[in-house]
Structure formats: structure tokens, C-alpha cells
Specification:
1 helix, 44 residues
Length: 44
């Protein structure tokens, strides 16, 4: 029983880290797209 609780805690912690990682990727991708769009406007 205690082992299952520990496993659930690890899973919850891992999920939080994974969600934070995905959010970081989304923000980075959005920044890259915005930067490329602005560069395109300035160059064009």
C-alpha cells in the first residue's frame, strides 16, 4: 500500500514537471514564430 502511494506521488510530480516542460516548449515556439514574423516584416 505504501509503495502504491509513493508511486502515485512520483506520477503526480512527474506529470507536473511534464506539463511545465510542454508549456515552456509552447512559449518558446510562439516566441520563435513572432520573432521570424517581425524579421520578415522588417526585411520585406
Amino acid at each position: 500500500m505504501a509503495t502504491e502511494d509513493r508511486f502515485l506521488d512520483l506520477t503526480r510530480e512527474h506529470r507536473a514537471i511534464w506539463e511545465g516542460f510542454l508549456t515552456f516548449i509552447k512559449i518558446s515556439t510562439a516566441l520563435c514564430i513572432i520573432t521570424v514574423a517581425l524579421l520578415g516584416l522588417f526585411v520585406a
